[in-house]
Amino acid sequence: MLMPDPDQAMISRKRELVTKLREIVPGEGVIADEDELRVYESDGLTAYKQPPLIAVLPETTEQVSQVLKFCHEEGIKVVPRGAGTSLSGGALPLADGIILGLGKFNQILEVDFDNRCAVVQPGVTNLGITKAVEDEGFYYAPDPSSQIACTIGGNVAENSGGVHCLKYGLTTNNLLGLEMVLIDGTVLRIGGKHLDSEGYDLLGLMTGSEGLLGVVTEVTVRLLKKPETARALLLGFSSSEAAGELVAAIIAAGIVPGGMEMMDRPAIHAAEDFVHAGYPLDVEALLIVELDGPKAEVDHLIETVSGLADAKGAVTKRVSESEEERMRFWAGRKAAFPAVGRISPDYYCMDGTIPRNQLPHVLRRMREMSEHYQLGVANVFHAGDGNLHPLILYDANKEGELQKAEDFGSDILRLCVEVGGVLTGEHGVGVEKRDLMPDMFSDIDLKQQQRVKCAFDPDALLNPGKVFPQLHRCAELGRMHISRGQLPFPELPRF
Hints:
InterPro entries: FAD-bd_oxidored_4_C, FAD-bd_PCMH, FAD-bd_PCMH-like_sf, FAD-bd_PCMH_sub2, FAD-linked_Oxase-like_C, FAD-linked_OxidoTrans_Type4, Oxid_FAD_bind_N, Vanillyl_alc_oxidase_C-sub2. By secondary structure, the chain is α+β, with helices and mostly antiparallel strands. The chain contains 17 helices and 20 strands. A hairpin with a 4-residue loop joins strand 5 and strand 6 (117-120). Helix 9 runs antiparallel to helix 14 (359-373).
């Protein structure tokens, strides 16, 4: 995994840049000490580390605007960062660039129950939104497993989902408006409290843009009323294939659960040892199916799904009889990632998405890959929308195992594309999947995507080295004429 070569001339200007940045963000808002900068050297993908040149922690939109304008004028690279929980290296710093941390943007600015929305700063945690409105019977639907820590700005950058995204959608389906700052310092507002916006869907373009197009400084999100009733079924199977077949059967029957999650045997045992959720330990796969809505509807759907589970060979079956029991079912799933961390020195969390009917086939192929690489794998995933999260178990202290884990992960992602899926469901491309983009997109596709970036960031200063496997200068993406064997703009470096 290679990043653009650092600009040594920019690195040599560090003291000068720190002085000028402190004029914009005074006090403790600019961090230059090498030891203090190590806090920012990686995000959740800790296999890759690189301290930034400088970290800047603004407190206002005006400061963000001035910082970006200064960086634009001076040609300084900028990596926006939220809570650093990204699992794709999306917030990996650059040795010759600044980290722009939005952690101080942590206020809920407005809660508007009449319009069922909230206006928040990007540093507010995902769960913090729900906590602020739950007393009135409302909540914010997207709920990634890291929701206690991940921030709404990062959710926008990665288009995060969660266990309830099958029915209630990803971040993009729950977003109404943004305030963002472009690389030249321009402050732009997109959307708002209204449900429909005129013109191009720039809100959709920004959601999932991974910090390549602008820096989000305010977010307006949709609030939902808490369902009247929610109950969950805990279903055990003798094989992952059988559980996968039930997933397809439920969707084929026209049922859209509030959430539908699957874990295989290693993940079940790890979660139960960690949380004591009451999971059966004599099954190969566990499916959690949550149904919500009016009580009569939920009771009917519980009966229907129970019958489908029997037809697919469920060997254990429990239905939550209280809110505490339902939350206990989910507690194990929500804690699956840290739980797996207790059974392996290291693990590599993947993120690919496949058509639901391919689940049995993909699970079989992953078992074969596990045997080939001689590395264990624990599967935890959003079964309802086919978003896989295989956790590849390895020991970084053993020579070559990290490389084996990465190769294993790459093969899983290629398999996802092969069966009609995509490289990522919610973690983003970042640096982790960057070099696999040609497996999914043609060169024409990738260049067209880069033209969009050029419209927002012509000098490629925002989060460079991420998403695109080959860096093109914006001038190269226009009409190219070669005269006498000479490329235009010969002074531009090409990677």
